[in-house]
Write a structure and sequence with these properties.
- The chain is α/β, with parallel strands linked by helices.
- It has a six-stranded mixed β-sheet, with helices on both faces.
- The protein has one domain: Peptidyl-tRNA hydrolase (Rossmann fold), CATH 3.40.50.1470.
Length: 208
């Protein structure tokens, strides 16, 4: 497995996973879209019209060029768009950061990893299959597990609770911060910083 510092690239592809259209905009499955939207807004970027099955936005951070990407193929075919964008811009797959929702993490928790399995996430699986490469970097955004009487697919394809608004905002901001730390300081430093941050859920459990 090659790590970030093995390469001398100044271009990163940052993919937020989600489904296109207003119907899905605030769903848990779209928190990746929400995070790249936050990055675009923070850095004054403007989204392009759809091309190569994605909308993109070019920004810079820490002397690096970032191409923010929102696939428009729907989640299960995300890899189709990602493969095209990386080929067009000649971006090494080792400089791909994928931001996605994760039911295995408590709501508000963020974890960074490189490579490994897809954890049942079909968007991540599609990218790995399309690129024939699994060692890209991932920013995993915790959305929590569904209630026992709710199907997991139905859960991620439903909006966050209104009462969770502040936690979701913090989740998006933390996901954006994790991405920027990877770009500026490298994978290990980003992991050390982000993983040391306690979520509201963790603090609540420790106080009980």
């Amino acid at each position: 497995m090659k790590l970030l510092n093995d390469y001398d690239s100044r271009i990163f592809a940052v993919v937020g996973l989600g489904n296109p259209g207003t119907r899905y905009a605030r769903h848990r499955h779209n928190v990746g879209f929400m995070t790249v939207d936050a990055l675009a807004e923070e850095h004054g970027g403007k989204w392009s019209p759809t091309k190569h099955d994605a909308v993109t936005c070019s920004v810079s951070y820490s002397d690096r060029a970032l191409i923010l990407i929102k696939p428009q193929t729907f989640m299960n075919l995300s890899g189709k768009a990602v493969h095209k964008i990386l080929a067009v811009h000649r971006i090494d797959s080792n400089f791909l950061i994928v931001i996605h929702d994760d039911m295995d993490l408590h709501l508000g928790k963020v974890r960074i990893k490189q490579g490994g399995g897809d954890g049942g996430h079909r968007g991540v699986r599609s990218i790995a299959d399309s690129l024939r490469f699994r060692d890209f970097m991932r920013v995993r955004l915790g959305v929590g597990r569904p209630p026992s009487d709710l199907d997991p697919e139905q859960y991620v394809l439903s909006p966050f609770l209104f009462s969770d608004a502040s936690v979701v905002k913090r989740l998006i901001n933390l996901g954006a911060e994790a991405t920027k730390l990877i770009v500026s300081d490298g994978l290990e430093r980003a992991r050390n910083v982000i993983h040391a941050i306690k979520t509201e859920e963790t603090m609540r459990l420790e106080s009980e």
